[in-house]
Amino acid sequence: MFVPYRRLLFTEILDQPDAEAQSGRETRVVCLRRAITESKSKRLIRTLEPVDNPLAGEEKQEVAVPQQ
Questions:
Q1: Are 10 and 2 in contact (CB under 8 A)?
Q2: Which single residue of 1, 2, 61, 66 could bond 7 by disulfide (Cβ 3.0 to 4.6 Å)?
Q3: Is the pTM of this model over 0.85?
């Protein structure tokens, strides 16, 4: 239906958006991987941080346990 030259131009035109879409997908994948790594790092830091004891500066109150 097309002569070889037009067929080549036609396929180049059709392949161009695919290459742009692939580039966009690769960029999004890189950004998502970076975001996941950062969130994992932040979560690990929060896990390893010492937890403040709310009763550290106060006297501990004794809790009465009912005897049975």
A1: yes
A2: 2
A3: no
